[in-house]
Write a structure and sequence with these properties.
Number of strands: 0
Radius of gyration: 19 Å
Oligomer: single chain
Shape: extended
Distance between the termini: 40 Å
Largest sheet: none
Structural class: mainly alpha
Low-confidence stretches: none
Number of helices: 4
Strand content: under 5%
Helix content: 55-70%
């Protein structure tokens, strides 16, 4: 294991239990596959982009995403 990985593990293990649980879920979610092929994901992204460009989907404001004014 690389030294940076050891450092990250030590930092993670020093977190309170509820924060370690949240981090563990985040890490597991980051490697879980949703079962779609690259082509299916690409098609979905192209469809979403088309809806944004057409105005059919207005997207989210900065405030809605981050909870603070831009």
């Amino acid at each position: 294991m690389a030294l940076t990985s050891v450092y990250l593990a030590e930092e993670a293990l020093s977190l309170p239990p509820e924060e370690r649980t949240a981090l563990a879920r985040l890490l597991l979610d980051s490697v879980a596959s949703d079962g779609r092929s690259d082509e299916a994901i690409r098609a979905d992204l192209q469809d979403r982009l088309a809806r944004l460009k057409s105005g059919e989907d207005t997207g989210l404001s900065f405030e809605a995403v981050f909870g603070e004014p831009a």
